[in-house]
Amino acid sequence: MLNKVKLTDAEMKEFAEVFAYYDYGDDEIGMVPYYPGYPDRTRLVNYLVAMIKTANAYDGIYATSDNKEGIIILTDTTHPYPGIAMIKMMWRMIRALGFQNFNDIIRKFQAGGASLEKTYRDGKKQFVQIELLAVKKKYQGKGFMRPLVETAFEVARQGGLPVIVSTDARLKKDKYEHIGMTHVNTRTLGEKSFMYDLVREV
Questions:
Q1: Which residues, in sequence order, are CB contacts of 76 under 8 Å at separation 6+?
Q2: Which of 22, 37, 120, 148 has the most CB atoms at less than 10 Å from its CB?
Q3: Phi-psi region of 59 (alpha: psi -120 to 50; beta: other; left: phi over 0)
Q4: How many CB atoms lie within 10 A of CB 70?
Q5: Can you tell me the distance from the alpha carbon of 165 to that of 176, in angstroms, rounded to the nearest whole number?
Q6: Distance CA 20, CA 14 (A)
Q7: Distance (Å, whole) CA 79 – CA 174
Q8: Total structural domains in the chain?
Q9: Domain boundaries, position 33
Q10: Angle value at C-alpha 75, between 71 and 77, nearest 5 degrees
Q11: Can you give the pLDDT at residue 70?
C-alpha cells in the first residue's frame, strides 16, 4: 500500500489543474463546462483545492512515491472528517464558486439520478470512496494509476468495505474497470455529459 503524504499549496494547485484540464476527447464534455467562468478554469481549480486542502489536513492523501507522480484522495465513512472540517471545506467551495453557482452545480450532479454514494448512504452502507485521483501530465500513461487504485482496494479490504468512485470521463471509467472495478450505472447529466458509477465490492 502506498504511503500518505502532505502536499504544499503549490502541489495542491498543480494536482487540481491536472484534474481540471483533463482532455475528454470529442464525444464527451464532462462536468467542466458547468463550472462558472468556463472556458477559464480558475474557479474550478479553486473549488478542487478546497477539497484537497481538507484531505491534506486530515491525512487522506496517498502518493505514488516521494516524487508525488500521482495522488489519490480517499474518504472512509467509518472514519469521517470532523464536522468543523466539513464546514470549512464547504465554505471554501462556496467561496470558490459563489453561492448560486455552488447550488447549480449540486443540482446538475443530481440531474441524472441518485449517485452510488447517495444510494449507499441512504441504505446506511459503509464504504471507501475515491474522491480524486490525479497523475501529473508527464507521468500519465506510465502505470501510475494502478498502484493508486490498488491502495484504495487495500484500505477498503482492511475495513471489510466496498470501494466506490464516480467519474465524468468514459476513458477513466474504462481504466477503473481494467484495474478491477465494476461499472454499475451511467447517469446522463446533459448533452455529452455523463457520470459513471463504479464499485469494487468486498
A1: 126, 127, 128, 129, 155, 159, 161
A2: 148
A3: left
A4: 25
A5: 9
A6: 10
A7: 29
A8: 1
A9: 3-200
A10: 165
A11: 98
- CB 133, CB 80: distance < 8 Å: no
Q: pLDDT digits over 23-80, tens only?
A: 999 999 999 999 999 999 999 999 999 999 999 999 999 999 999 999 999 999 999 9
**What contacts 142, CB < 8 A, 6 or more positions away?**
69
pTM for the predicted model, two decimal places: 0.96
Q: What is the pLDDT of residue 109?
A: 87
Residue with cell 458547468: 34
Query: Which of 17, 146, 162, 177 has the alpha carbon at shortest distance from 76?
Result: 162
- CB contact at 8 A, 98 and 44: no
Q: Which residues lie closer than 8 Å to 85 by C-beta, 6 or more apart?
A: 54, 57, 58
